[in-house]
């Protein structure tokens, strides 16, 4: 469900074992970019609940990747 993106490069993986994930298959694809990665969605004006899921697919140490999310 990688829709609405404006920038970035898509990558896929044959298998990723993501700790504590009930379904690791959803983490077989990633979109990445050095710099700003943006998504835009046109939706009706109302209140929404947004659930964000993240998995680190490249680094193995804590705090190796730091980022901000603006909604």
Defining key terms:
single chain; 71 residues; little secondary structure; two-stranded antiparallel sheet; globular
Report the helical percentage: under 10%
Going by helix content, strand content and strand pairing, the class is: little secondary structure
Query: How large is the radius of gyration?
Result: 14 Å
Strand count, sense and barrel status of the largest sheet are:
2 strands, antiparallel
Instruction: Please provide the ordered H/E string of secondary-structure elements.
Output: EE
Strand content: 5-15%
Q: What overall form do the CA principal axes indicate? A: globular
Taking the alpha carbons of the first and last residues, their distance comes to: 18 Å
Question: How many beta-strand segments?
Answer: 2
Low-pLDDT runs: none
- Strand sequence of the main sheet, in spatial order? 1-2
Mean pLDDT over all positions: 77
Number of helices: 0
């Amino acid at each position: 469900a990688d829709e609405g993106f404006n920038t970035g490069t898509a990558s896929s993986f044959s298998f990723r074992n993501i700790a504590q994930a009930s379904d690791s298959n959803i983490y077989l694809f990633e979109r990445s970019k050095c710099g700003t990665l943006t998504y835009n969605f046109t939706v009706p004006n109302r209140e929404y609940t947004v659930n964000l899921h993240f998995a680190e697919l490249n680094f193995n140490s804590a705090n190796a990747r730091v980022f901000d999310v603006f909604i």
